[in-house]
Amino acid sequence: MELPHDWGIEGPFQEELPGNTGKRPWHGIGWYRKRFTVPDLNVGERLLLEFEGAMSHPQVWLNGVYIGEWAYGYNSFILDGTAAMQPGQTNELAVRLDNPPESSRWYPGGGLYRDVWVHRKAVVSVDEWSTFITTPRVTPTASSVEISTTVRNAGDNCTSVEIWHTILGPDGSRVATVRTDHHKLPAGEARDLVAQLEVPKPMLWDSFTPALYTCHTEVRADGVLQESKDTCFGIRSIEWRADDGLHLNGRRVQVQGVCQHHDLGALGGAFNRRAAERQLERLLQMGCNAIRMAHNPPAPELLDLCDRMGILVVNELFDTWKIGKTKADYGRHFDAWHERDVRNWVCRDRNHPSVIAWSLGNEIREQEDLPGNHDRARRLVELCRLYDPTRPTTVGMNDGASMTNGFAPIFDLAGYNYRAVLDKSVNYQTHLETLPRIPLYGAETSSCLSTRGVYFFPVRKEKSGGFTNFQVSSYDLYAPLWGYTPDIEFDSLDRFPAVAGEFVWTGFDYLGEPTPYNTDVTNALNFCDPELRARAQALDELQHLGEKAPSRSSYFGIIDLAGFPKDRYYLYQARWRPDLPVAHLLPHWNWPGREGEITPVHAYTNGDEAELLLNGKSLGRKSIGAGEYRFVWEDVRYASGKLELIIWRNGKPWATAVRETSGPPARLRAIVDRNRIRADGKDLAFATVEVLDDMNRVVPDACPKITCSVEGAGELVATDNGDPTDWTSFQSHERRAFNGLALAIIRGRPGMPGKASLIVSSQGLASTHLFLDAFENPADQTKFS
After folding, report:
1. Which residues of 681-709 are buried (b: 16+ CB within 10 A; e: fewer)?
2. 547: pLDDT confidence band, cut at 50, 70 and 90?
3. Most CB contacts within 10 A, which of 221, 612, 669, 756?
4. Given this model, what pLDDT does residue 522 score?
């Protein structure tokens, strides 16, 4: 078995399991065992085991000796296995995991779903996660750099210790070097050592040029090199202003963000670098520049990707504090574990330049001003500042009372969930009037619901007007009670520029939480808010629908579970990429049997004038009005043929879009995101399968069953189609296309370079195939798998 591994994604969907956690068998007890040999150790050397994430409640034995545990399945932790290790012999590592039912509000996955590492530590070495690099002064001519490290002497004798730090530029060249003074370090003790230096003419890290420096650290004891390690960091300044939002390197940056759960769709909770990179690439193409981690620490490799790709991160720790939300969640462990969890979380991630704030919680119930509640908030902030005083603390607040009851001012930043001015009585304007000195941003916004390629008629305007057949119409007008359309948030941000920006719920669909078809909708009512409590009765009908709903995944995503953009993608792209000509029409134009019936047409664009034509006849030219973010033609009567959109900006042609009535399905086409992958058993290629008519147009309502197979130096890992009600196993080679599209994920076989081919077929349709090159890339042998 290879790590990372998620046992829950491999099991079948089960009707009796709750949709809230994806109808997957993620709960239960599981064991992992690994036999491995370690070299002989010198006296005082240590072997540490680092777990990047273990879902959940891991208990660890080495050679039958219990060496430790952790409570929080999302956090990283390190255990010392030296005393139980048998150098030069075969050792056995055993890990017991226990995922109790009712311990999560969404699909958490199960197992060793992130990497596990073995670290060999020298007698005198730097403690893991102790290196902390800051840039107190940043100017175009020079940047000061301060490097703090904790050095430990695990030997039996006092030694003279010094540290050399060499700064390497983004191109690998040496730009600065510093050496600490000699320090006497007694046996068994540790000492914090601090060094300062300057980097001349620094290349600053930002969203456009994410320049990364490397600090190469060498530890010397009595003049002998003991250990060396590299730490990546960025040189940049961040400032959150109450009147003007976020400033990065002195320049205001509008936060154009999304919230992201940790699962990777058909791959489940098991982290895969390429799958995460693909998600980030799709978000960047939309114009997204920031992610809020919802609602837990991410895999460290995800932060590495954000550093490299220039994506800002609000790093979040908890979904609950002591007052829990489900029967067996983290609330049971908060008192005993929260201090250790804050320490590990901040110390692990504080050198990432992408991290711009620490979020200590999401919609936690301690917002209410009751005894002990706010004391917990103050203690968490205190701990966070202890380990990193350079970044602000924040929290995602959904209770409007938090603005006036003393909760919001505990934090450096106010993050608000669903507080757009046009939809809420307690809103951004309320904050600006009552807490004018505290910066604010939208921590969760919109919660618009839709299913890719699905449209229902007549088009109703009320929030729940598009919920039918366990799908949600993609006119982007529909939301749960607490949510609203993207347009409402846009208007609030335009009218109140002091708000730093938004994090939309969500970037991608995710496993679980299939609101509105969810038996646990009441729990999702954002507990504390009286305004929502008063309206909860209206959810009775939706809860009834959810009792036997087949939904496996959410409807919130701008992008569906398979990674295919929904219509909403282009609404955000039009706003977030103003210099990119954007024109997008909805709905599709295949509506047999609806001839002559009203079929409203919406257009998403960043132009200011638009004309719609149906079969060459103009249906009207419109100008965009103040507070309007889409063009709408309400009274279009359907006729098969060609729907055309022509966009102007500032009086000049800007962009066009076309929707045509397709013919029946005739053939398949497969398009791969990359045609070269590493033959390492981890690298992936994602193939989009399209259902085409005989004129090579995607048939937008086609759902034929397709079969995928891979031959040669590759294997089929998973398939999907983005349909939130499809219970086909993700490992199945057979699956329906959904509204013209399907996904196949291919992996290179370890140690097997060569050609791989994907063949896709469907009865009655012309098949297709594509070729990939799998190339040799030796695996990193330090990883435990």
Report:
1. ebbbbbbbbbbbbeeebbbbbbbbebebe
2. low
3. 756
4. 45
Report the residue count for the chain.
785
As a whole number of angstroms, the distance between CA 417 and CA 400 comes to 9
Q: Rounded to an integer, what distance in angstroms lies between the CA atom of residue 156 and that of residue 80?
A: 18
Q: How many CB atoms lie within 10 A of CB 541?
A: 12
Q: How are beta strands 609-614 and 642-649 bridged, if at all?
A: antiparallel
Q: Which of 50, 363, 366, 644 is catalytic?
A: 363
158: alpha, beta or left? (left if phi > 0; alpha if psi -120 to 50): beta
Taking 90 as the threshold, does the pLDDT of residue 784 lie above it? no
Say whether 363 is catalytic. yes
Q: Is 609 helix (H, G, I), strand (E, B) or coil?
A: strand
pTM tops 0.85: yes
Take residue 698 and report the two structure tokens written for it. Answer: 């995607």
CA distances from 307 to 273, 301, 302, 351 (A): 14, 10, 9, 10
Burial class (CB in 10 A: 0-12, 13-18, 19+), 90: exposed
Average pLDDT, stretch 737-749? 97
Dump the DSSP string for 513-536: --TTS-TTTGGGS-TT-HHHHTTG
The distance from CA 80 to its chain's CA centroid, rounded to whole angstroms, is 31
Instruction: Report which of 212, 319, 301, 174 is spatially closest to residue 261, judged by C-alpha positions.
Output: 319
**Is 444 a residue of the active site?**
yes
Residues 6+ away with beta carbon under 8 Å from 779: 680, 681, 750
Q: Are 7 and 108 in contact (CB under 8 A)?
A: no
Burial class (CB in 10 A: 0-12, 13-18, 19+), 283: buried
> Buried b vs exposed e over 219-237: b needs ≥16 C-beta within 10 Å?
bbbeeeebbeeebbbbbbb
CB 70 within 8 A of CB 37: no
Q: Tens of pLDDT along 566-623? A: 999 999 999 999 999 999 999 999 999 999 999 999 999 999 999 999 999 999 999 9
Active-site residue, from 227, 316, 444, 660: 444
Give the pLDDT of residue 549. Answer: 83
193-214 mean pLDDT: 96
Q: Is the pLDDT of residue 176 over 90?
A: yes
Q: What are the phi and psi torsion angles at 543 (to 5°)?
A: -65, -40
Q: What pLDDT score does 38 carry?
A: 87
Tokens of 560: 């569906």
CB 464 within 8 A of CB 542: yes
Among candidate residues 407, 383, 386, 404, the one with its CA nearest the CA of residue 395: 407
